[in-house]
Amino acid sequence: MSLRPDPPLPPRRFREAIRGARRRGLDFAAYIAVRCLVATIQVLPLDMGNRVCRGLAWVLVHGIGVRRRTTEGNVAAVFPDADETARRRLEVAMWHHLFLMVCEIAWAQRRLHLCNWSRYLRFRGNREMLAVLLSPRPSVIVTGHFGNFEIGGYLVGLMGVKSTTIARRLDNRFLHDWVERFRQAKGQEMIDKEGCAPRVERHLRQGGTLSILADQHAGEKGCWVDFLGVPASCHKALALFSLSAAAPMIVAYTRRDRGRPMSFEVGFTGVADPADDPDAACGSVTELTRWYNDRLAEAIGPAVEQYWWLHRRWRTPPARVARRMAKRAA
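Below the sequence we write its predicted structure tokens.
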């Protein structure tokens, strides 16, 4: 056995090791800060948390202007006739919703369980949803960056429905592990979006339920349809998962009820079944993609302030796509 010390690392590897250690240290510090913030939120009464969120939203919009260009561009595209005052009011309401959404996720871990769910939830169309979710056939739940979709995923597991959700990993691995523990606490399985197709197909073949956030930009080669009246690129895989597995697609939402914190309406705006399709929604990938975008728009309509207008959902379509969509609209 040699007693000689290990040779020193080459300069490049040494610098990489230092950078990696610094990054892990910063990530862990951010994780500790977030956990302390969440612990503080968890002890706040609902009305006090709501007032704090409203004040933070006002400061963020009128004082700091975070993501203002993206938010204003999205709101102007969808609501071209709204004046500046109305758009700014919607921006404040959106940030209030986002802050309150974070509070509700923190509160749910300690306040929402099987013995008291009826205090916080009101279901709409629960019989129709359960008929699909509890059948031996596979199913696909589609929602968007609207309402409190994190609570929605938590509720699916709370009600005994085992689902698989596709999500991107967070860059901070400490925060990622913690958020994933919350998401999986009631039986929701999380899988990374990179290379997930074989695993999803296997899950659907076994009669499982897949849950997806549908309003993600898919790039120039995506399936372009109108969403809230503006062209948007959608991932073709969502429709393909449903069509290839003959899995009914449900467009669901978890909408804050009358703006009250920790009070939700859970419902759906439509079901498209490839095996029974009187409306011809499942005729092709494009038709099914257009169908679920229209159903998402129906869910958003009564509470537009609960949509993520800061989300980079809409981009300029390629010229050939714009010409094709204009010809179809004519």
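The first strand starts at residue 121 and ends at 123.
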